[in-house]
Amino acid sequence: MKITIVAGARPNFIKIAPIIRAIENKRKIVPTLSYRLVHTGQHYDKNLSDTFFTELNIPKPDVNLEVKSGSQAEQTAAIMVAFEKELLQNPCDLVLVVGDVNSTMACAITAKKLHIKVTHVEAGIRSGDMTMPEEINRIVTDSITDYFFTTSVTANDNLIKYGADARNIHFVGNVMIDTLYQNLDRISAPDFWEDFNLEKDHYMVLTLHRPANVDEENSLIELLRGIDEMAGNRKIIFPIHPRTKAILGEKKLDLKNIFLVAPQGYLHFMFLIKNCFAVITDSGGISEETTVLGIPCFTMRNNTERPETETIGTNTLVGTSIENLKKIFERFLINGPKKAGIPELWDGKASERIIDILLQK
Ligand code: UDP
């Protein structure tokens, strides 16, 4: 079986690493199993791409389509044009896509139109929010996927509701968490740990990159000032996403507690998360990682496609207003963290399950 694996953006790299590792292990007993790795070039900043390949021991991609940025339509179209050529030159039995970025959807459509089977890892999750480009990517990808691999029973139910064939839906767990477990003993403090005098459980981590929070400059600044004030005298480490940085430009913000740093590599970032007091974020993946690590997470969104991080895990949805965040955070300071657990099958073995199931198809 020849599998073409697609990755385009930071969260994709974290998800394909354990899948490739599972394939490499399986190949020792199934030599007919092979893969080709395609990087679409959607994320090309060193901090969002190369660092993850090095740290997570992901092999150098067989090809980089180098699509880079553009509008939603430009980027999707550029990926499709380049990926069609790639598939015609290098035929395969199966295209495997992960997550919900433009590369996921664009490559799924391209493969399906060439009559190649599509596998979607992290299928079936839904926020119900059609203003998120990711939600459209999820729905379109799942509508043409042949084999679905899910992180929760809720995702299975969503797929059934959309008409997918139950025999092709497999609840296997979470590949993001495979990566977390595979690297926990390799995480390490970033250089600024000492410069900033950070101490375990005494600082917070902030990440913001969703259009709803960062695209309007004045409300982003107001949000940051509010969080800065709310922190009391706790330091807040803010690895700033290039999208957010571009909005803020060179503006001086006069923040007392928030320390802006470059986007972190995986091993430094997970060290910061594992040792912090709490996280404020609008990321989906981070709410899964904090759930497994038992770190309180406040998500600045009105909805989540990962409800189990809230019903079972440590995540609390706080909406996008600073007033609401302050209210919920104050309550947390008084009442302490909520009781939380780890969702079923988030045990570090999802990738092995995926490869075993694919080999039976
Ligand atoms: N991440 C990282 N360094 C950072 C910020 C994030 O390594 O500075 C990792 C982290 O593991 C997170 C993942 O990148 O789960 C995806 O983050 P992002 O917020 O970009 O994507 P989302 O999960 O919202 O799709």
Automatic annotation (TrEMBL):
Q: Which family does it belong to?
A: Belongs to the UDP-N-acetylglucosamine 2-epimerase family.
Q: Which SUPFAM superfamilies match?
A: UDP-Glycosyltransferase/glycogen phosphorylase
**Top-level taxonomic group:** Bacteria
Q: What class of enzyme is it?
A: isomerase
- Give the Pfam families listed for this entry: Epimerase_2
Q: Which organism is it from?
A: Flavobacterium sedimenticola
For molecular function, the Gene Ontology terms on record are: UDP-N-acetylglucosamine 2-epimerase activity
Q: Which stretches make up the UDP-N-acetylglucosamine 2-epimerase domain? A: 32-358
Q: What is its EC number?
A: 5.1.3.14
Q: Which UniProt keywords apply?
A: Isomerase
Q: What is this protein called?
A: UDP-N-acetylglucosamine 2-epimerase (Non-hydrolyzing)
